[in-house]
UniProtKB/TrEMBL annotation:
Sequence segments annotated as region (Disordered): 31-61
Composition bias, Basic and acidic residues: 33-50
The entry's keywords: Membrane, Transmembrane, Transmembrane helix
Protein name, per record: Uncharacterized protein
Transmembrane segments: 5-21
Keyword Membrane: yes
């Protein structure tokens, strides 16, 4: 029974990542728009209207002006612990008891039967990589996710971003200027989790801006391009986008064509030319959004 539950959990995890990263060949991509991404980005009507709406929205439980908040992000134990969990999510999946003892030989054998030859080869190497990482960095607690989560929950945030992660400051209470201040820190620690914790802003401002920029109003397609481009931006900021990263590990399980590639190679070798062109347009927008 436990074996069946484990396989179901693994399949659910793979399906969730598939919905985020599947290259959908049925969606119509827009033709390449030469040099548009080199032009300076001007704020769209959508963003301007939304900023006015968000700015005049009454704050929920936060009366202080922005300057009374703690530092946006210095060295915060909450942010640091959260970044470790995010960065090594697939190794936690492999090694931690919370994911159904996937580390046992019997369970690994069952999982391996779901993979093709190329995926299986990658899988074995990746499992070894996670074991080595656990030995090199015992402070990550890769075999005990609950312990790392307790460390996160017991830590006291010392920054605005840490307070947002802990739920002490509600993202919905921030106005557009405060959100822009967060994003323009151009920080890997912030941007790696920004789409999750600033979901409303990403859905109501960034997404609709991108529909206009890409001249494409297929919601799922634009959302997918936004995710691809955001991850590529994180790679340029210094995120681990090697073949051993959690992102590439999951992409490999979704498609054997992704196994052994880094993220830039995945973009150039697996995605369609139309998707690649739209990702470059989106990158131009994100560079303007995330940096001064």
């Amino acid at each position: 029974m436990q074996n069946k539950v484990t396989i179901i959990i693994i399949l659910l995890i793979i399906v969730s990542f598939y919905l985020l990263y599947k290259p959908d060949q049925n969606l119509v991509t827009q033709p390449e728009m030469p040099d548009k991404h080199l032009e300076p980005y001007n704020k769209s009507d959508t963003e301007a209207k939304t900023e006015q709406t968000v700015t005049t929205k009454p704050k929920q439980g936060i009366d202080e002006p922005a300057e009374t908040y703690p530092a946006i992000y210095d060295s915060d134990p909450v942010v640091d612990a959260n970044l470790i969990i995010t960065r090594h999510s697939m190794c936690y999946n492999y090694l931690s008891d919370e994911y159904g003892n996937v580390k046992t030989a019997k369970e690994l054998g069952r999982f391996e039967r779901l993979l093709d030859k190329k995926q299986l080869q990658y899988h074995k190497k990746y499992y070894q990589y996670c074991q080595q990482l656990n030995q090199q960095h015992p402070e990550y607690k890769l075999t005990n996710l609950s312990a790392m989560q307790k460390q996160l929950s017991s830590a006291e945030p010392s920054s605005l971003w840490g307070k947002i992660i802990k739920g002490e400051v509600k993202a919905e209470s921030l106005n557009a200027y405060e959100i822009n201040d967060l994003l323009k820190q151009n920080s890997l620690a912030i941007l790696s989790q920004a789409p999750k914790h600033l979901r409303h802003y990403y859905n109501q401002v960034i997404h609709w801006d991108l529909e206009d920029i890409l001249q494409n109003h297929q919601y799922d397609y634009v959302k997918q391009i936004q995710q691809y481009a955001h991850q590529l931006y994180l790679c340029n900021l210094g995120a681990d986008c090697s073949p051993n990263s959690s992102v590439l590990a999951m992409l490999c399980y979704l498609s054997s064509h992704s196994c052994g590639l880094n993220y830039e190679q995945y973009i150039s070798q697996v995605l369609t030319p139309g998707q690649q062109a739209d990702i470059q347009l989106t990158m131009g927008y994100l560079r303007n959004k995330y940096s001064f």
